[in-house]
């Protein structure tokens, strides 16, 4: 006789409890009082023990909790909290195709009674309750009606109207007797009042399905491990083989999309999301993933058509509106993008990146104060999210407020203060404060902590060293930037600048010429080319480069001055005077300096 595993035995025992006379209907307060102790919060922790995500879980047997699988693979460890207890948790059963996972917690005295499970499908119109830890605010209850049972590739889900929010996934959908109808599945959410739950009847099938999908689960675990370790090339290889041998596996396509995104392979990312969309054509997840990948690939028109289709299909999903806003912004429709971002925040006030989108749009229209206000608010409300504070620092620097940026740096979370990013911004801020020596020290500390391939910090170090006139070191730093990212145009530009300033103008011209071949509309490339040619005494060519740079961007005071000086040196006095008059229009203060050091000299020569 085959002995059942403890997990399966306990789940089946609970499932059999459905064979009982119908229980009396309970009031919402009674449902909540009975259910709340059996609804827990699952914390997904990173390697440092910091929570990176939260979701709900339901107690289905002694020390056995059920939640959704999605996202669990990103966690280094798991915790389940219930009432006053916070316990370590281990994944013991994964039904990946149905996105249901069972977690085991250590033997402990729980005050909660596991839910009784209702096996039969609920009729449309049945009153139901969603009990979950929505938005991480604590376990709460909402009510609504069953809209019907709807078919998805994984099976038939219960559609219901009780409001749910991020964090509700894995929570309990209950009938009026407090019996468990389903597990809330936020991934299939289709709007403010169109939500879905996996039927509780599936719980008893989980272990058998997991055993049948053992090879699939092993691939999932290996893929999750590679993702946690950041081994994206290996994950890409695994996922590619997985999608080939098992093209009906949604997990395979998800991991393929994740690896492609990390490797900046936009074409492969589009292909992966299209693969997932073929399996679930009405999936919001695949729609948003595909739209984002198309946008990154530069296919703005296709992304816009898809986003419009998604909005028309589900105008109550905040994440769709945020995608729509991003696409509209890329299409140059800033006004419409702001409307879409605001709609996203109305539908989901906790969608933080929609506020970030509003900040970026404010910055683009020149409203620095509005952008700074948003970043300041976000960094104050969420001090443990360093990205918001870094955006605030960047904005303060752009607004000419380096002292405030330096103060913002002191308010980073303790664990972030010694990171490569923190030292990078410290270097940038110190340079703006006129402390290039300290900036060099900070930037070298950032490089020592950074991952290989970080060109931006090498560029910043090169600029700081050039301000100290340490030209050989500045050239070396710029060369390292180009080694880190050989196709980076900014690294090429700064190497040309440092070579020009370091007495190697001919090499600077060679690099600038390469830049101009690929970026003929870049005024900076024409500018550095002109300065290097002037140093080499090639005044006619230098003048043409300066004129082209100013044609593309006439606001460059130093280039007008260089044009005036080079024209005088070439004997073109009238052209030099015209350039000087333009400089007076663009930068009167700098024009006065140029007059005393340059124009007077040439006027005296003329006399």
Task: Report strand %.
Answer: 5-15%
Q: Provide the structure class.
A: alpha+beta
Unreliable sequence segments: 1-22
**Which overall shape is indicated by the principal axes computed on the Cα atoms?**
elongated
Count of strand segments = 12
Helix count from the secondary structure assignment: 26
Largest sheet: 6 strands, antiparallel, barrel
Strands ordered across the widest β-sheet: 1-2-3-6-5-4
Give the end-to-end Cα distance, rounded to a whole number of Å: 115 Å
Helix content: 55-70%
Q: What Rg is obtained from the alpha carbons, in whole angstroms?
A: 31 Å
Mean pLDDT: 87
Descriptive overview:
The protein has 607 residues and is of the alpha+beta class. The protein has 26 helices and twelve strands. The strands form two sheets. The chain has a six-stranded antiparallel beta barrel with strand order 1-2-3-6-5-4. It has a six-stranded antiparallel β-barrel with strand order 7-8-9-12-11-10. Helix 17 packs antiparallel against helix 18 (455-467).
Chain-wise SSE layout:
Blueprint: H1 6-15, H2 28-35, E1 39-45, E2 51-61, E3 64-68, E4 77-82, E5 85-95, E6 100-104, E7 127-132, E8 140-152, E9 155-160, E10 172-174, E11 180-184, E12 195-199, H3 206-212, H4 214-228, H5 232-245, H6 250-262, H7 266-279, H8 284-296, H9 300-313, H10 318-330, H11 334-347, H12 352-364, H13 368-381, H14 386-398, H15 402-409, H16 420-432, H17 436-449, H18 455-467, H19 471-484, H20 489-501, H21 505-518, H22 523-535, H23 539-552, H24 557-569, H25 573-586, H26 588-606
Helix pairs in contact: 4-5, 4-6, 5-6, 6-7, 7-8, 8-9, 8-10, 9-10, 10-11, 10-12, 11-12, 12-13, 13-14, 14-15, 14-16, 15-16, 16-17, 16-18, 17-18, 18-19, 18-20, 19-20, 20-21, 20-22, 21-22, 22-23, 23-24, 24-25, 24-26, 25-26
